[in-house]
Amino acid sequence: MATQALLDVDQLRSAIKVEYADVAACPLKEFHFHIGRVLASRLGYRADRVAALPDSVVESFAGVGNPFAWGEPVPGETVLDLGSGAGFDALQAAQMTGPTGRVIGVDMTPAMLEKARNNAALLASDNTEFREGYLEALPLADASVDLVMSNGVVNLCPDKAAVLAEAYRVLRPGGRLQISDIVVTAAVPEDAKADISLWTG
After folding, report:
1. Does pTM surpass 0.85?
2. What is the Cβ-side half-sphere exposure of residue 18, based on CA atoms within 13 angstroms?
């Protein structure tokens, strides 16, 4: 694939980690994208649910949509959040699935993972765990989850086919995939695909 040949994936991942470590540590800083409570309101999240969350859970939220708009997880389900960040969507899903359910967040940014784990502890969310990993090689067993969701992260992965294949692999038969993301309708030039500054900013 030409894009893979031109793009330094390790360099891209490093740049993304730096960007989102900043979002985790400095949520009051101005970014080229919206974050936090104002964004959650614009994207149609339930106001009462967001209002009940501590600032540390909401302040680093940087999604592009609301994956719960297609349906919420139900008690007892196992949910996987691809690119879980500081845990905004995962921790809401954990409340929906209840004590008999389970939510697993996967992210590659150590600063976001640390913040998500701290947020889970703050909420005493015992049915939530956050794992370090890449979406192209998920640290989960085959057919182990009922719902795979993601919010504004697949666009950052150069091999989207691999991400979707992994999501399919870990879904149980009859499982659901609910993704909010950025989609372009025009072809992107190969040299632009290889420009890391365009991926991250």
Report:
1. yes
2. 11
